[in-house]
Write a structure and sequence with these properties.
alpha+beta, 7 helices
Length: about 180
């Protein structure tokens, strides 16, 4: 990670990064939502949430990866989806007031250099929440291995092809 810098943006300042974030996001989920629709929809909603945090890693002028998240609460799409998918006792213990890692993307040219772990560790350090959650596709073996190596545990399924993973660095909680 020599020569890499990580810049942080809150909800307001992240608005200036919409083109960069959308391009990285769309590169991982092609063809991607048109930028105007994405900016006024998902991006605007996410940036307005409590605790929103965006980190962008750059090597020189090149974007290498990014991560963003916010405080997840009942009544939000992903939290409600997870609540419907997880066992009730697990949902009650983990959902609501958690830090929700929405996206962690490292561009292909920068993978296998520790950047994903660095971005994930940094965003969690910046959060004051006692637990964090994310979802990961069951087929995404590299991401699942990264999360497990950092102490994340599978809490249960999220639909038919993904899992909810959590970490509670401030709690003495093991796998549920």
């Amino acid at each position: 990670m020599i020569g890499m810098r990580i810049d942080a943006y809150d909800g307001a300042s992240a608005a200036t990064q919409v083109g960069i974030v959308h391009a990285v996001y769309a590169s991982q989920y092609p063809p991607g939502t048109p930028i105007d629709e994405w900016r006024e929809g998902i991006w605007s909603a996410h940036r307005s949430r409590e605790g929103f945090d965006l980190l962008i890693a750059r090597e020189g002028d090149e974007v290498a990866g990014l991560v963003w998240g916010y405080v997840g609460e009942r009544g939000q799409f992903w939290t409600d989806l997870a609540a419907a998918s997880l066992a009730e006792d697990v949902a009650d213990a983990w959902l609501g007031g958690h830090f929700e890692v929405v996206e962690l993307i490292v561009l292909p040219a920068y993978r296998r250099r520790g950047l994903g772990a660095a971005l994930l560790a940094r965003i969690l350090e910046r959060s004051d929440r006692p637990r964090a959650l994310l979802s990961v596709a069951d087929t995404n073996v590299p991401a699942r291995a990264l999360y497990a190596s950092m102490g994340w545990v599978v809490l249960g399924p999220l639909g038919a092809r993904s899992s909810v993973m959590g970490i509670a660095p401030c709690l003495e909680a093991g796998p549920i």
